[in-house]
Amino acid sequence: MKKVAISLFAILVSTSLAMAEDAGCEAFRWPVTREQALFATAPSTPSGATLAVGAAADLALVPAEKAGFAVPPERAPAEGTFGAVASVAVPPEGTIQISLSGEAWVDVIQDGKAVKSSGYSGAKTCPGIRKSVRFKLAAGQATVQFSGAKKETLKVAVLAPE
Question: Are strands 82-90 and 62-63 parallel, antiparallel or unpaired?
C-alpha cells in the first residue's frame, strides 16, 4: 500500500509540474502581451534614465554596490549582482505596472520611502518575461530601483494596468 501511495504522489507531482511548464505566459495573473511587444524593440537605456509610462527600456545595469540606491533595497542584493536606479513620472491615475524580463528585485521610492507593491505576478515559463509588479502611487515623480539581477541588462516595461 505504501508503494502505491508513493507512486500516486510521484505521478501527481510530475503532472502538476508538466502543467505548470505548459502554462507559459498564461501563468501570469494578468496579460503580458503588451510587454512582449515592447521588449522586442526596447532601446538601450543607461542607469539613471527616466522611464516612460507606456514604453520599455533595455536597461544597462551596474554592479549593485555602484547603483546609487536612494534607499537600501528591501532585499539586500547578493554579492556579484547588478542594479540600477531610474525615475518615472507617475500619471494622475497613480497605478503603474513594472514588468521585468529577468530575475531582479524592484523597489519604488516616493517621498523618500519605499512603497509596498499592490500586486505581483510571475512565471518562469514565459519567454522573455519573468515578473510584473503593480504599485499604487501618488501622481508625480518616483524613483525605481532594480537590484539583485544576475545579468548586466534587464528589459523593463512601465505600463498602466489593463
Answer: antiparallel
